[in-house]
Structures are given as structure tokens and as C-alpha cells.
Amino acid sequence: MNIAKTAKVSLLALNRNKMRSFLTALGIIIGVGAVIAMVSIGQGAKAEIEQRFTEMGTNLLFVRPGSMSFRGRHGGGGSYTTLKESDAKAILENCDAVQYVSPNVNTRAQVVFGNKNWNSSIYGVGDRYPQIRNWDVEYGVFFDENQVRTGQKVCVLGSEVTENLFEGADPIGEIIRLNKIPFRVLGVLKTKGEAGGWGSRDDMIAVPYTTAKSRLMNIDYIQSIDVSAVSAKRTDEAARQIEELLRTRHKIAPGSEDDFNVRNISDIAEGASEATQILTILLGGIASISLLVGGIGIMNIMLVSVTERIREIGIRMSVGAREIDILLQFLTEAVVLSVLGGVLGICLGLGSSSLISKLAGMKTLVSIGSVALAFFFAGSVGVFFGFYPARKASKLDPIEALRYE
Amino acid sequence: MENNNLIQLKDVTRVYQMGDTEVRALKGISYIIKRGDLLAIMGPSGSGKSTLMNIIGCLDKPSDGKYFLEGQEISTFNKNELARMRNKKIGFVFQNFNLLSRTTALENTELPLLYSDVPSKKSREMALKALEMVGLKGRELHKTNQISGGEMQRVAIARALVNDPSLILADEPTGNLDTKTGQEIMEIFTTLNKEKGITIILVTHDPEVAEITERRVYLRDGEIEREEES
Q1: B59, A399: Cβ pair inside 8 Å?
Q2: CB spacing of A318 vs B86 below 8 angstroms
Q3: B98 lies in a domain?
Q4: Does B18 map to a domain?
Q5: Would the CB atoms of B84 and A402 count as touching at under 8 Å?
Q6: Model ipTM value
Q7: CATH code for the domain in which residue B96 is found
Q8: Cα of A318 to nearest chain B Cα, Å
Q9: CB distance A350 to A26 below 8 Å
Q10: What range defines the domain where residue B45 resides?
Q11: Within a domain: residue B204?
């Protein structure tokens, strides 16, 4: 019997029992669909994070206070007050691999303009912050070095704040109040877009860090320093220079722990994409289990179906079907079911991943690799779990099979 | 006249092992069936007639002795060769029809051809012809669950015929049918035997069915008891 005839026999047999065929394939449909959808979530998250970090700039370094211990006691998160404005200045002056430096403080404030009231994030930053973080000013200007040094009450608005306070009117030169203190609006930033469930990146107001420290927060330290290296290649060098300098400035004895840490954007990106990689593997792994369960379902139903069709097998043998013919028929049935299930599962996976990205606002990415892998896996599941029942069918004795009630 | 012998059984025995005891279903059968015979194998249940039919039908092999079909020694064949013999030389008709359910008459008739090397276009023609011979022209696309018992048995006969076999083995072919339908089915067998010269072996315990045959072989306890000719 040739392949075309085997396929014909198998398809006819499957067609005779549409409902059972569908239910058998359902396990594979859901398994493949789940693998594709889950992996697409993981890969989407990874792509999203990578893109976000690329947007920030590859030569970015963060200096944060941390690991501070005082007489053996570790301070809590809010107690890190070790970074000073002077540290930022020293970094810019002494480290030749560093291009720009921006001391940062963050707080929230109640923003009032006319009868509009809004609560927003306040970024106290230096004048070079836009260059460091790849921010663009949509219109107006960012505050300059002089305004930062003298602690002017000026601000630059994120697009969402602008929309909420001014509703399309020109905000440049207007006075808004942050915690009742008047600030003059200098400019508006370009929209940066949703942060994928991390809150809006446009609901913020940038003010000089000097002003934020003294007027809004009343502190004498800074919370972090953003640094850009002269080039992406020299970021590691810049990080080393900063570490050396700050250890000297903070008088840390050799061998003791730093009271700060310098992190490279690519380290953070790597860590984050590693985390999403683990997420992808985890999600894919869980989904694969359902594919495996689907395969066992195929085996189960094929075994039941062999028992149920003993008479049919006997009839086929009595008219001249050989063992191999019966084996191939049942194996083909299993493979056809799992391949059809695989195709439908791919559709389900594509559909649900686009649904997830629409409904949950998560980025999903379906790669050809994951589709091919899921499909190949489904086919193998069919062969693997179809073989045992098929063999069992082919080993039946025709006389017994014909007599079977 | 050696080549006029379709079937030659030489001291055929069949022993089943049932646990510790041996059951001797056939105790040395020697017999010759000629081409074109219309023969009945008769006997009470347990006489070994089903075992004999299974051996003649190449579903089973003798434990001892020799079986020749068309001069080929079947008793030395392996499973695949037996399957090939069933496919080419033998047509079965069973008491309970043994048709594939929810399948059309045509597909059922075509079944043996699926396991041969007949191209599918030709096999369709052959199946249609076989169905016409058993009087089912126009019913080819009826499914087996939509037709009567008599019609089902006709489909089964068409299936047995389709490969142009040397031998049709019918095991109680009228057992599940009423008398009138049973007679119609028997008429088909007689016609096939007379007009097409196909050798037909009926296995039955019904004397009325056996009446139409030329020869009757009576089995008892695995041995040939007597032979009748009419």
C-alpha cells in the first residue's frame, strides 16, 4: 500500500469519527497554542525591555548610594544620604571618560495651574539630563547651567502634565505652583509613550535639582547621579574611574565595601533580559507540559480507539491488510491529528497572543522559531504517542479480531 | 488433472494450547477441493469447521500437515504472505457481515483493493462492477447503517468478489437473515458459482442452506465424518 492510499484510509477513518478526532486533537491545539502564546509574552517583554534600554542610550551609567553600613548596621533604603552634589562635580572634573553628569533627586508634588490640580512626579535634574537620557524638548527650552546653579524656580513639563493642566493652551512662560511654590514653565518634552504597565513616562515635571532639594524636599544630599560616558566603548572605563574617585572621596578603606554602586546600562539591560529569558523559559516550559499532556491524550484516545476498532482491524486484515498497513494507518491517524492540531494550535497561539497584547497592553512577539518548534514538537508527539497504540493494533490476531464483540 | 485442484489438504492438524491442556481442533484432515466446486462444510459447533475455514482462508496456519492453494504451500507462508493470499485469492463473507460502519457500500467494496496495487481509478470501476453483480446498482453511496441486512450481505459479497478471487469462503452467510432474504443471498452464490466459475465454500450447520451445494462435507470432533454428493 502506498503513502497516498495510507493517507486516504487514515483520513476516511478520522472523518468517520469527527468528534473523537477533534477531541483528540484538542490537547495538541491547546498545547501548541499555549506554547506560542506564552513564549510570545516572554519574548515581547524581552524585546520591550531591550528597546527601552536602547532608547535610554548605551553609554549611560547610574551612580546610586547603597550598601552603606554604619558601625555594623545597614541603613534602610531612605537612609542613603552619602551622595553629595560635590561628588557629581568631582566626577565631571576628574574622570576623563565621562561626558555629562546630572545629579538627581525625585519626589512627588501637587501641581496647580489656575483651577487645575494634578499630582505628578518631580524630577530634580541637572541641565545635561536631556543629553544623558536622550530626551527631546518638543518646544520651548530646557533649563540651562546658570539656572541650575542659582536654583531658579523654573520647570519643563512632560506631555501628559501639559495636556492635563493646559488642555492645548501654550504653557510657555506660564506660572504653575508645585506645593504652592511658583515655577515658570520653560518648555515641554516630547511624548515618550506608555511604559507598558510601568506607569506613564510623560506624567512628570523636570526642575533643577538644586531647586528641588532646597525648595521642595529640604535635603542636602542627592539621590543618584546619572552619567554618560564619552562613548559606549568607554563606559566600563568611566565606571572604574568613578568608583576610584568616589572611594577616595568617601574615604573608604581598601577591602571595605563601597557605600555606593555604579551600574552600567548594559549590565542592567542584560540582567533584565536575562530575567525575561528565564520568564520565557518558564512560561514555555509550563506550556510544554500541556503539550505533553495533549500527547498523552492522543495516546489514550488512540488506545481506546484501537480497542473500539478491533473489529475494523480484523476486517481490514481479512481482506489482506498486512501488519505494516495497520501500523501505518494508525500512526498516520495520530500524526495527522497532531499536525492538524499543530496548525490549529498555531492559529490559536497567534490569535491569543495578539489578544493578550490588545487587552492587557503587553507587547507580544511571535518568533518563527517558536512556531516551528511548537509545530515540530507536536508532530513528534504524534509519532511518539501514536506508535504504541498503532503497534498494538497491528499485532492483533485477525481471527480473534473478527470474533471480537 | 493436478492443476484442477484448487485446494489440497494433507493430514492437516490444528492444536491450540489452552493453558496446560492441548485442544486438538483438527485431527488430520486430508481433502481436495476442485476449481469451480460449490461445497458446504457442515457439522455441529465444536466440530472444527471454523478452524478449518480459518486455515483454508489463510487466516491461520495448520500446526502440522500441508495446505496447498493453487499449488502454493500455504503452510510455509509468513504473516505477510498470508495477508497477500487473502488479498488476492480469497473473499470472505461473514454471518455478521463485518462491514465498516458509517462507510458507503462503495468504500466497503473497495476495501481489499486499497491493500493491493490496483490504481484508485481502476479500483472504483471494479467496485462499481462488483456492486452491480450483486444487484446493488444505484445504492453505491448508501452508508452501511442506512441499508437492510440483506443489502449489507450483498455489499459483503461484492467486497469478496471485487478482487476476482479464486475462492469465496462464506461463514453462515444467511445466519442473520430471514428465510426469504437468505434464499436471495444463496441465489447470488449459486449464480456466481455457475456463471463465473468461482469456487465457493459455505460453512454452515443449516441443512437447507447446504441443499444448494453439490457436495457436503460433515465434520465431527476435528475429523471428516462423511461426505455427501448430490
Answers
A1: yes
A2: yes
A3: yes
A4: no
A5: no
A6: 0.93
A7: 3.40.50.300
A8: 7
A9: no
A10: 36-64+79-229
A11: yes
